[in-house]
Structure formats: structure tokens, C-alpha cells
Specification:
Layout (H helix, E strand, L loop, with lengths): L7 E9 L4 E3 H5 L6 H8 L3 E3 L7 H16 L8 E5 L10 H9 L5 E5 L5 H15 L5 E8 L17 E10 L7 E9 L7 E2 L22 E2 L1 H22 L9 E4 L4 H11 L10 H4 L6 H11 L8 E8 L3 E8 L1
Parallel strand pairs: 4-5, 4-6, 11-12
Antiparallel strand pairs: 1-7, 2-3, 6-7, 8-13, 9-10, 12-13
């Protein structure tokens, strides 16, 4: 249990997704697949996709504005902006500085964090440490992804999975640290598993238009079966360790909010933790895998729907390419 008298908490949340919806039936017209096949294997029914002329920064800024409004914080009060993303508008400048400009948060430092689907958990944990060191700070944590721009729409095993969107949280000091705030977190990685999920093209090893690399390597590639094995094992381990070392049992948990990668992974984890369905939040059917935006979008919707209530013990768990993984235990 954290003994620090300062505890950070989420003061307000926001989310934004592109209005364009791509359904499984739409995908049937693009590749050889079916609504039944996609639903059975992933739990996804539709996903939101950027249209031509749109960029993910638009939705990161929109989600951030809502989070600030709900937190009662002005952009000028922000001290730091952390954007978790692997699909920024540009390599330079970062997504975070575009968000800073879009908000008019002139006093805030800003940087991007690349931890794929674990990005929001990583960023929230970093914000927690900044708040403990600087209790009066206000930090904006954003998870925003445009994975449709990194998807090979001819690869039927990949193009059914991903969607675009953004979720944002304003983090600050809890005024009731014994009743509300982040309790503990775990961050981890296993670099030996990196070949299981890759996007090789476009970096400094293989710059854009490099003829040494096949065109398909400029899109996401994944070994799904091996990713499933890794994800289920590591998320269960994180969940149990966070509960045990903070003196909680599985029965004490009010809500599990896992990364929305695949319904089969979520259901396997729920079974392993022996949790009833009502204690595990799922919205993958509406958004697909939005990577670093997945958990903040789920948190936002859980609160909006009344599933997540003040005082609830909440566990966030995620995994992502790299491989990265992490979890945050908090009192809402």
C-alpha cells in the first residue's frame, strides 16, 4: 500500500471518435470475411475511422477540451501534457504539442509516449509520479490513435481489428487521498517478444519508400495466436499482483477495465479472475481496438453509463506490442 500522503486522481475525462463508422458488413465488401466470423473471433461489430482530410490531433484536442471542462480546469492551469500514441499526425512535431497549441495551454510542457496499447497506463503512472513530486500540478493525459492509417485493408486478419479515437484524463492531487485516487501501478515489458506484433516500415531502420522492405511491412503485422497467449498470461499476473500487494482480494474489485483488444482475451481474463460479467467493462463491439485510446474511452463510457461510481475499486490492465504491459489500481 502506498504510504505517500499525496495521491493523484482523475479529475475529469473526455473522449472523441470520428463520426464515420465502418461496420463488419462494410468490411464484407472490402475483403473476404463475414460479420459472423469477425464477431465470433473478436467481439467487434463496428469501428470509427478517420476520413480523408482528418487527423487524430483533432480528436485528441476535442477529448482534451471535454476532460478539462469536466474537471473545471482551464488550459492555462495545465503544467504538463502527455500523449500516448504510436500514430501521431507527424513524427515532428509531436502530437502533444499540437494538443497544447489546440488548447492554448501555453504554460504546459508536452511530450509523446510510445508504449502501443499500454500507452495510457504508462502515461497515467508517469502523471501520478509527477503529482506526488509537484502536488499542485495539473496534468493532461491523452490516449489517441489513428490505427486505420497503419492498416493493410487487404489483410483480412488485421483490417477487422482496429479503430480510431481519443480519450483524455485530467490528473491532479486528490483532496481525499484515503478515499480516492491512484493506489498502485505496475509497468513492464518483454522485448524478446517484439516480432509478434510489428510495423517495421517508416522508422529509421527502413525509412519511407525504402525498396529493401516489402510494402506490407509498412502496415501492422501480427501473430494473433501467440499474442493471445502472451496477453492472457501477463494481464492475469498483473491483476493478481496489484490486488495482492495492496491487501485486496478479487472479491473487493468493483470494476475491471481491460484494454479492448479482443473479446476472447477479455473473457478469458474474466474467467481466470472469476469475476461476474457486470464487473468487467466491455465496449470493443463499438470501437474495435483503439490501442492507447482504448482504456480512457472505456473509463469515460463506464462512468457515463453509471457502471463506474465514486468509491469503486477499479483495476486497469493493458498489454501492447513491444511487448509492453501494465496495470493501475485506483479508487474512483
Amino acid at each position: 500500500m502506498c504510504l505517500n500522503t499525496v495521491r493523484s486522481t482523475i479529475l475529469g475525462m473526455g473522449m472523441a471518435v470520428p463520426p464515420k463508422v465502418l461496420t463488419n458488413h462494410d468490411l464484407e465488401k472490402i475483403v473476404e470475411t463475414s460479420d459472423a466470423w469477425i464477431t465470433e473471433r473478436t467481439g467487434i461489430k463496428e469501428r470509427h475511422i478517420l476520413e480523408d482530410g482528418e487527423n487524430i490531433s483533432q480528436y485528441a484536442i476535442k477529448a482534451s477540451k471535454e476532460a478539462l471542462e469536466r474537471a473545471g480546469i482551464s488550459p492555462e492551469d495545465l503544467n504538463l501534457i502527455i500523449c500516448a500514441t504510436v500514430t501521431p499526425d507527424y513524427l515532428i512535431p509531436s502530437l502533444a504539442v499540437l494538443v497544447q497549441e489546440g488548447l492554448g495551454a501555453s504554460r504546459a510542457g508536452a511530450f509523446d509516449l510510445s508504449a502501443t496499447c499500454s500507452g495510457f497506463v504508462y502515461a497515467l503512472s508517469i502523471a501520478d509520479q509527477f503529482i506526488k513530486a509537484n502536488p499542485e500540478w495539473k496534468i493532461l493525459v491523452v490516449g489517441a490513435e489513428a490505427l486505420s492509417r497503419k492498416t493493410n485493408w487487404q489483410d483480412r486478419s488485421i483490417c477487422v481489428l482496429f479503430g480510431d479515437g481519443a480519450g483524455a484524463a485530467v490528473v491532479g492531487k486528490s483532496t481525499k487521498p484515503s478515499q480516492k485516487g491512484i493506489i498502485d501501478f505496475i509497468l513492464g515489458a518483454d522485448g524478446s517478444k517484439w516480432p509478434l506484433l510489428t510495423l517495421k516500415g517508416g522508422g529509421s531502420a527502413f525509412p519511407p519508400f525504402d525498396d529493401r522492405l516489402p510494402r506490407e511491412e509498412y502496415y501492422i503485422k501480427m501473430q494473433g495466436r501467440e499474442v493471445f497467449k502472451f496477453a492472457t498470461r501477463v494481464m492475469e499476473k498483473i491483476a493478481l499482483e496489484l490486488l495482492e500487494r495492496n491487501g485486496f482480494s478479487k472479491e473487493d474489485l468493483d470494476l475491471l477495465v481491460p484494454h479492448q483488444a479482443n473479446l476472447r482475451i477479455i473473457e478469458y481474463l474474466r474467467d481466470r479472475l472469476n469475476l461476474p460479467k457486470e464487473k468487467v467493462f466491455v465496449n470493443i463491439d463499438k470501437y474495435g481496438n483503439t490501442s492507447a485510446a482504448s482504456i480512457p474511452i472505456a473509463l469515460y463510457e463506464a462512468e457515463k453509463e453509471g457502471v463506474l461510481k465514486e468509491g469503486d475499486l477499479v483495476l486497469l490492465v493493458a498489454f501492447g506490442g513491444g511487448f509492453t504491459f501494465g496495470g493501475v489500481l485506483l479508487r474512483w
